[in-house]
Amino acid sequence: MSKVALPSQPETTILAETFRLLGDSTRLRILFFCLEAPRSVGDIAASLDLSQSLVSHHLRLLRGARLVRGNRLAKQIFYELADKHVSDMLVDMAHHVCEEADEA
């Protein structure tokens, strides 16, 4: 197992805020929905049965935390996970939760 450098105090604060953002089930649903392909606000809202304004609000927070990025195509913005670190973390944590459930 490789050693990981301990984050500085400011980095720890940012990390804690990121985990706080991930503590919202609606934001997690949005992230998992965007895991496979870029999605528009309308597509996210319709598929997850949420209002477009709520989805936009959550995407603004997720974008601010650098967890998603938006790419404009004509008049629409398509959101995807920011990078492989974010997608790997989500998939790893989902596997972890499933393992815990299987062991119980």
UniProtKB/TrEMBL annotation:
CDD domains associated with the record: HTH_ARSR
Signal peptide: none
Protein's UniProt keywords contain ATP-binding: no
SMART domains hit by this protein: HTH_ARSR (SM00418)
Domain HTH arsR-type: 7-101
InterPro entries registered for this protein in UniProt: ArsR-like_HTH, HTH_ArsR_DNA-bd_dom, Metal_resp_trans_reg, WH-like_DNA-bd_sf, WH_DNA-bd_sf
Transcription regulation in keyword set: yes
Keywords: DNA-binding, Transcription, Transcription regulation
Coiled coil spans: none
Molecular function as annotated in GO: DNA binding; DNA-binding transcription factor activity
Protein name (Swiss-Prot/TrEMBL): Transcriptional regulator
Organism of derivation: Phyllobacterium zundukense
Lineage: Bacteria, Pseudomonadati, Pseudomonadota, Alphaproteobacteria, Hyphomicrobiales
